Amino acid sequence: MPGKPSYKTKAIVIGRVNFGEADRVVRFLTPEHGKLAAVAKGVRRIKSRFGGHLELFGEVELMLTEGRNLDTITSARLIWYPNQIASNYDRLGMAFLIAKAVDRLTEPDHPAAALYAMVREALAALDSGAAGALFELWFKLRLLETLGYRPELGSCMICAQNSPEARYSFSTERGGIVCASDSSPLDVPMSALQIKFWRLLCDYPYVTISHIDDAAALAQQTLYLCDGFYEHHLGSQFRPTLTGESA
Ligand SMILES: [Zn+2]
Question: Quick check: pTM over 0.85?
Protein backbone atom coordinates (compact mmCIF):
# COMPACT_ATOMS: atom_id res chain seq x y z
CA MET A 1 0.00 0.00 0.00
CA PRO A 2 1.51 3.38 -0.99
CA GLY A 3 1.77 6.33 1.40
CA LYS A 4 4.01 7.56 4.15
CA PRO A 5 4.91 4.83 6.62
CA SER A 6 5.38 7.18 9.56
CA TYR A 7 4.47 10.77 10.39
CA LYS A 8 4.41 13.36 13.16
CA THR A 9 1.57 15.57 14.37
CA LYS A 10 0.33 17.75 17.18
CA ALA A 11 -2.93 16.46 18.67
CA ILE A 12 -5.50 16.91 21.44
CA VAL A 13 -6.81 13.73 23.11
CA ILE A 14 -10.61 13.63 22.73
CA GLY A 15 -11.42 10.01 23.60
CA ARG A 16 -9.92 6.72 24.73
CA VAL A 17 -11.16 3.16 24.77
CA ASN A 18 -9.38 0.05 26.04
CA PHE A 19 -8.35 -2.46 23.43
CA GLY A 20 -7.09 -6.03 23.90
CA GLU A 21 -5.05 -6.94 27.00
CA ALA A 22 -2.97 -3.82 27.52
CA ASP A 23 -3.61 -1.53 24.58
CA ARG A 24 -5.86 1.44 24.09
CA VAL A 25 -7.34 3.12 21.02
CA VAL A 26 -6.95 6.87 21.46
CA ARG A 27 -8.95 9.41 19.46
CA PHE A 28 -7.38 12.79 18.69
CA LEU A 29 -8.18 16.06 17.03
CA THR A 30 -5.27 17.17 14.84
CA PRO A 31 -4.76 20.33 12.76
CA GLU A 32 -3.76 18.58 9.51
CA HIS A 33 -5.55 15.23 9.66
CA GLY A 34 -8.78 16.16 11.47
CA LYS A 35 -9.97 13.33 13.67
CA LEU A 36 -7.45 10.57 14.12
CA ALA A 37 -7.76 7.22 15.93
CA ALA A 38 -4.58 5.29 16.73
CA VAL A 39 -3.44 2.38 18.89
CA ALA A 40 -1.21 2.94 21.93
CA LYS A 41 0.33 -0.49 22.45
CA GLY A 42 0.99 -1.59 26.02
CA VAL A 43 -0.29 1.74 27.38
CA ARG A 44 -2.11 0.06 30.29
CA ARG A 45 1.03 -1.70 31.58
CA ILE A 46 2.60 -0.12 34.64
CA LYS A 47 5.90 0.45 32.89
CA SER A 48 4.41 1.80 29.66
CA ARG A 49 6.68 4.17 27.76
CA PHE A 50 3.63 6.40 27.26
CA GLY A 51 3.40 7.11 30.99
CA GLY A 52 0.88 9.90 31.55
CA HIS A 53 1.38 11.34 28.06
CA LEU A 54 -2.00 10.32 26.60
CA GLU A 55 -4.42 11.82 29.12
CA LEU A 56 -7.85 13.03 28.03
CA PHE A 57 -7.85 16.76 27.01
CA GLY A 58 -4.03 16.91 26.91
CA GLU A 59 -2.15 18.32 23.90
CA VAL A 60 0.55 15.98 22.66
CA GLU A 61 3.18 15.63 19.99
CA LEU A 62 2.79 12.25 18.32
CA MET A 63 4.88 10.01 16.10
CA LEU A 64 2.77 7.44 14.29
CA THR A 65 3.26 4.52 11.94
CA GLU A 66 0.60 3.85 9.36
CA GLY A 67 -1.24 0.57 9.75
CA ARG A 68 -3.67 -1.39 7.60
CA ASN A 69 -6.66 -0.37 9.74
CA LEU A 70 -5.45 1.82 12.56
CA ASP A 71 -2.19 3.71 12.81
CA THR A 72 0.11 2.90 15.74
CA ILE A 73 1.50 5.52 18.11
CA THR A 74 5.26 5.09 18.31
CA SER A 75 5.87 8.01 20.67
CA ALA A 76 3.80 10.60 22.52
CA ARG A 77 5.07 13.65 24.35
CA LEU A 78 2.70 15.74 26.45
CA ILE A 79 3.06 19.44 25.52
CA TRP A 80 0.23 20.92 27.59
CA TYR A 81 -2.33 19.61 30.04
CA PRO A 82 -5.29 21.48 31.65
CA ASN A 83 -4.60 20.52 35.28
CA GLN A 84 -7.47 22.49 36.78
CA ILE A 85 -10.29 20.85 34.84
CA ALA A 86 -10.53 17.53 36.70
CA SER A 87 -11.02 19.16 40.12
CA ASN A 88 -14.30 20.85 39.16
CA TYR A 89 -17.41 18.92 38.14
CA ASP A 90 -18.88 21.73 36.02
CA ARG A 91 -15.64 22.31 34.10
CA LEU A 92 -15.12 18.58 33.60
CA GLY A 93 -18.66 18.31 32.21
CA MET A 94 -17.92 21.13 29.76
CA ALA A 95 -14.62 19.51 28.72
CA PHE A 96 -16.52 16.29 27.92
CA LEU A 97 -19.08 18.31 25.97
CA ILE A 98 -16.24 19.79 23.89
CA ALA A 99 -14.61 16.39 23.29
CA LYS A 100 -17.89 14.72 22.33
CA ALA A 101 -18.93 17.52 19.98
CA VAL A 102 -15.54 17.43 18.25
CA ASP A 103 -15.55 13.63 18.04
CA ARG A 104 -18.99 13.71 16.49
CA LEU A 105 -18.48 16.58 14.07
CA THR A 106 -15.05 15.88 12.62
CA GLU A 107 -13.95 13.34 10.06
CA PRO A 108 -10.64 11.57 9.51
CA ASP A 109 -8.32 13.03 6.85
CA HIS A 110 -9.99 16.45 6.81
CA PRO A 111 -7.74 19.32 7.93
CA ALA A 112 -9.24 21.13 10.94
CA ALA A 113 -6.75 23.85 11.86
CA ALA A 114 -9.35 26.48 12.85
CA LEU A 115 -11.33 24.00 14.93
CA TYR A 116 -8.11 22.79 16.56
CA ALA A 117 -7.16 26.33 17.60
CA MET A 118 -10.67 26.99 18.92
CA VAL A 119 -10.78 23.76 20.96
CA ARG A 120 -7.32 24.43 22.40
CA GLU A 121 -8.47 27.95 23.37
CA ALA A 122 -11.68 26.59 24.96
CA LEU A 123 -9.78 24.04 27.06
CA ALA A 124 -7.32 26.74 28.17
CA ALA A 125 -10.24 28.97 29.20
CA LEU A 126 -11.76 26.14 31.24
CA ASP A 127 -8.38 25.51 32.83
CA SER A 128 -8.22 29.19 33.86
CA GLY A 129 -11.54 28.97 35.67
CA ALA A 130 -14.18 29.54 32.96
CA ALA A 131 -17.45 27.81 33.75
CA GLY A 132 -21.20 28.08 33.78
CA ALA A 133 -23.65 29.45 31.21
CA LEU A 134 -21.24 32.11 29.90
CA PHE A 135 -18.60 29.56 28.93
CA GLU A 136 -21.18 27.15 27.50
CA LEU A 137 -22.80 29.87 25.37
CA TRP A 138 -19.44 31.18 24.18
CA PHE A 139 -18.22 27.70 23.23
CA LYS A 140 -21.41 26.79 21.37
CA LEU A 141 -21.48 30.04 19.36
CA ARG A 142 -17.77 29.72 18.56
CA LEU A 143 -18.24 26.11 17.48
CA LEU A 144 -21.18 27.05 15.24
CA GLU A 145 -19.10 29.90 13.81
CA THR A 146 -16.09 27.65 13.19
CA LEU A 147 -18.22 25.01 11.45
CA GLY A 148 -19.90 27.57 9.20
CA TYR A 149 -23.22 27.97 11.03
CA ARG A 150 -22.73 31.47 12.43
CA PRO A 151 -26.15 33.01 13.18
CA GLU A 152 -26.99 36.21 11.24
CA LEU A 153 -27.05 38.96 13.88
CA GLY A 154 -26.61 42.10 11.78
CA SER A 155 -29.97 42.72 10.07
CA CYS A 156 -33.35 41.09 9.42
CA MET A 157 -32.83 37.88 7.45
CA ILE A 158 -35.89 38.58 5.30
CA CYS A 159 -36.03 42.33 4.56
CA ALA A 160 -32.45 43.25 5.62
CA GLN A 161 -33.76 46.00 7.89
CA ASN A 162 -31.07 47.18 10.26
CA SER A 163 -32.28 49.88 12.61
CA PRO A 164 -31.49 50.59 16.26
CA GLU A 165 -35.20 51.30 16.91
CA ALA A 166 -36.53 48.09 15.36
CA ARG A 167 -37.55 45.12 17.50
CA TYR A 168 -36.06 41.79 16.53
CA SER A 169 -36.70 38.13 17.26
CA PHE A 170 -34.40 35.17 16.79
CA SER A 171 -35.51 32.57 14.27
CA THR A 172 -33.91 29.14 14.71
CA GLU A 173 -35.36 28.02 11.37
CA ARG A 174 -33.84 30.93 9.46
CA GLY A 175 -30.62 31.00 11.45
CA GLY A 176 -30.68 34.61 12.58
CA ILE A 177 -32.67 37.67 13.58
CA VAL A 178 -35.92 38.83 11.92
CA CYS A 179 -37.76 42.15 12.35
CA ALA A 180 -41.21 42.37 14.00
CA SER A 181 -43.13 42.39 10.73
CA ASP A 182 -41.27 39.32 9.41
CA SER A 183 -41.27 37.25 12.60
CA SER A 184 -43.44 34.19 13.14
CA PRO A 185 -45.00 33.04 16.46
CA LEU A 186 -42.17 30.52 16.92
CA ASP A 187 -39.47 33.20 16.96
CA VAL A 188 -38.17 34.45 20.30
CA PRO A 189 -37.79 38.19 21.00
CA MET A 190 -34.17 39.27 21.46
CA SER A 191 -33.17 42.67 22.83
CA ALA A 192 -30.64 44.89 21.06
CA LEU A 193 -28.26 44.28 23.95
CA GLN A 194 -28.62 40.49 23.69
CA ILE A 195 -28.01 40.60 19.92
CA LYS A 196 -24.89 42.72 20.38
CA PHE A 197 -23.68 40.35 23.11
CA TRP A 198 -24.00 37.35 20.78
CA ARG A 199 -22.05 39.19 18.07
CA LEU A 200 -19.23 39.75 20.55
CA LEU A 201 -19.30 36.08 21.61
CA CYS A 202 -18.93 34.98 17.99
CA ASP A 203 -15.93 37.23 17.43
CA TYR A 204 -13.88 37.45 20.61
CA PRO A 205 -11.85 35.09 22.82
CA TYR A 206 -13.33 34.05 26.15
CA VAL A 207 -10.91 36.19 28.13
CA THR A 208 -12.29 39.30 26.41
CA ILE A 209 -15.98 38.50 26.72
CA SER A 210 -15.67 37.55 30.38
CA HIS A 211 -15.01 41.26 31.06
CA ILE A 212 -18.27 42.45 29.49
CA ASP A 213 -20.70 44.00 32.00
CA ASP A 214 -23.51 41.61 32.90
CA ALA A 215 -21.99 38.88 30.69
CA ALA A 216 -23.09 36.09 33.06
CA ALA A 217 -26.67 37.38 33.24
CA LEU A 218 -26.91 37.87 29.46
CA ALA A 219 -25.64 34.32 28.99
CA GLN A 220 -28.19 32.93 31.46
CA GLN A 221 -31.00 34.70 29.58
CA THR A 222 -30.03 33.49 26.12
CA LEU A 223 -28.34 30.08 26.50
CA TYR A 224 -31.62 28.20 25.86
CA LEU A 225 -32.06 30.14 22.61
CA CYS A 226 -28.58 29.10 21.47
CA ASP A 227 -29.30 25.50 22.55
CA GLY A 228 -32.26 25.38 20.17
CA PHE A 229 -30.11 26.64 17.29
CA TYR A 230 -27.15 24.42 18.22
CA GLU A 231 -29.30 21.30 18.36
CA HIS A 232 -31.02 22.29 15.11
CA HIS A 233 -27.63 22.16 13.35
CA LEU A 234 -25.53 19.79 15.34
CA GLY A 235 -28.01 17.36 16.94
CA SER A 236 -29.15 17.00 20.53
CA GLN A 237 -26.46 14.59 21.71
CA PHE A 238 -24.06 17.33 22.80
CA ARG A 239 -25.44 18.14 26.22
CA PRO A 240 -22.88 18.09 29.03
CA THR A 241 -22.34 14.56 30.24
CA LEU A 242 -19.69 12.67 32.13
CA THR A 243 -20.00 9.46 30.12
CA GLY A 244 -17.56 10.46 27.38
CA GLU A 245 -14.80 8.11 28.42
CA SER A 246 -15.19 4.34 28.35
CA ALA A 247 -13.11 2.64 31.01
ZN1 LIG B 1 -37.70 42.19 8.19
Answer: yes
